């Protein structure tokens, strides 16, 4: 959510059609893993703030693109649940006796 929040601020200053930084650039900027960046971008796509053009990157939406459909929403929720589950498992393993 921090990635999405920061990018929302950036998007407010950008014009429709402007390209967002690459995923690699965002990873360097925020210091987060690829999946975390992808989750932030997915949230912005769901909100209709950006559109993805595949290998060309992500661009500021002009507002004419409709929001995602239900399948995309479910896919995003599943992705976020998976990430949260992995983080929870890592935390639990650290707190277990003999954990790191």
Automatic annotation (TrEMBL):
SMART domains: HTH_GNTR (SM00345). GO terms for biological process: negative regulation of DNA-templated transcription. This is Winged helix-turn-helix transcriptional regulator. One of its GO terms (molecular function) is DNA binding. Signal peptide: none annotated. InterPro entries: Bact_HTH_transcr_reg, Tscrpt_reg_HTH_GntR, WH-like_DNA-bd_sf, WH_DNA-bd_sf. Residues 1-63 form the HTH gntR-type domain. Keywords: DNA-binding, Transcription, Transcription regulation. The keyword Transcription regulation applies. The keyword Cytoplasm does not apply.
